[in-house]
Write a structure and sequence with these properties.
By secondary structure, this protein is of the alpha+beta class. It is built from three helices and six strands; from the N terminus they run H-H-E-E-H-E-E-E-E. A six-stranded mixed beta sheet has the order 2-1-6-5-4-3. Strand 4 (89-99) and strand 5 form a beta hairpin.
């Protein structure tokens, strides 16, 4: 699970609009894999997280958190969109849809603030998220699973979200 000491995760800071948007899309694609090990390698070994009211530190905690999350949040599909950037920091807004084992659908709305080290690994992630119940007929994220959102699938702004 541990990345080599010399591993880098381009694009690297300082970010431009294009590189920050690419970083957000790469994060979206990784999270849509629903592979906790893969996702954890984008973070420093001692990465600090706040996810809602949960506080985590380090890759093993990230892996455990994500494994539990995706065991409960079924048919998970996520879209991230660049909000702002400066230097080694990026802010994104995101939405994802999932269903529970009972068949109830939700859309989660959130914002994340990210801080990266010089190798492009995320050393800090702050996420604020709210879940809203939706009807299955109101779902908007309908690309085939598993895998990333297709390049021609609209983003949040294009979907009017």
């Amino acid at each position: 699970m541990t990345a080599p000491a010399d591993a880098t995760r381009p694009p690297l800071p300082p970010f431009t609009r294009e590189s920050a948007a690419l970083k957000a899309r790469k994060a979206e694609d990784a999270w849509n894999s629903r592979d906790p090990e893969r996702v954890s390698l984008a973070y420093t070994p001692d990465s600090v997280w706040r996810n809602r009211s949960t506080f985590l530190r380090g890759r093993p905690a990230i892996v455990a958190f994500l494994a539990d999350k995706w065991a409960r949040e079924l048919d998970y599909r996520l879209i991230k969109e660049l909000w702002a950037f400066e230097g080694d920091r990026i802010a994104v807004r995101f939405q994802y849809e999932y269903r529970t084992a009972a068949g109830d659908w939700f859309r989660a709305y959130g914002n994340e603030m990210w801080e990266f080290d010089e190798a492009g690994l995320m050393r800090r992630r702050e996420a604020s998220i709210n879940d809203v119940p939706i009807k299955a007929a109101d779902r908007r994220f309908l690309w085939p699973r598993p895998g990333p959102r297709p390049d021609d699938y609209p983003g949040l702004t294009e979907l009017g979200l």
